[in-house]
Write a structure and sequence with these properties.
It is a single chain. Helix 2 packs across helix 9 and helix 3 runs antiparallel to helix 7. The chain has twelve helices and no strands. The chain starts with a helix and ends with a helix. With 285 residues, the protein is mainly alpha-helical.
Amino acid sequence: MTAFFALVTSLLWGLADFGGGLLTRRSPALTVVVFSQGIAAAVLGVIVLATGGWSEAGPRLWFAFAAGLVGPAAMLCFYKALALGPMGVVSPLASLAVAVPLAVGLALGERPGPLQTAGIAVAITGVVLAGGPRLGGAAVQRRTIWLTLAAALGFGTVLALIAEASTTVTGLFLALFVQRVTNVAAGGAALYALSRRGGTVLPEGGFSWGTLPALAFVGLADVAANGTYSVAVQHGPVTVAAVLASLYPVVTALAARGFLSERLRTVQAAGAGLALVGTLLLATG
């Protein structure tokens, strides 16, 4: 169960990152974050009402609230990094987010077995290579590197927080709703402040209603990934779930290949293969 839900998480995050990266090439990153998360919050609100999730309200929701404050900042840094720098640098660096929940799991006393330890090492190596790290060419802006590392720290923190936010399915819906409402409130306040300072909040030519389906997909895929990750850590060790969930750069690279006809370089193909080997070791260890 842990391996299955963690792999679904990586699939959803990979597709969400691909869609978000495309959208930020045409619209301001903060606008993409606020609109996509707003749609996700609306859908979650309906689900919470339908499932009676309000009955699960309790102190654990503070973890969801904290995740909601960290999440928009992390996504904004990530989308800006994607817009400024090559995906082959940003994607593998962002996968360093796995270090935070891994550290939490180890601090809580989790000790993976020999096969799982090998799987973790192989999978992380595969993730970095699958992102297609640039081994040459023009230097990447320092700002892009720092933005990506900040995003990785934020994503890892959100993973650790959301894993503590609920223990039941209905409680998970409520926790994700609180997280998304907080996302929208924090992001909306930042967007308002940006507009007051004369910053760009809409794409050139104004908002296009044709982008709503893409925004909805990015927001819903992201929130679904948070949900499947939470289920994964409830059924197994965080150290395993976090690594498997971090395989999303493989999905992003494959999506770029399928939708944008980007060719996978040898290093990316090798990384995807290593990620698969690491996955098998983790699942069987």
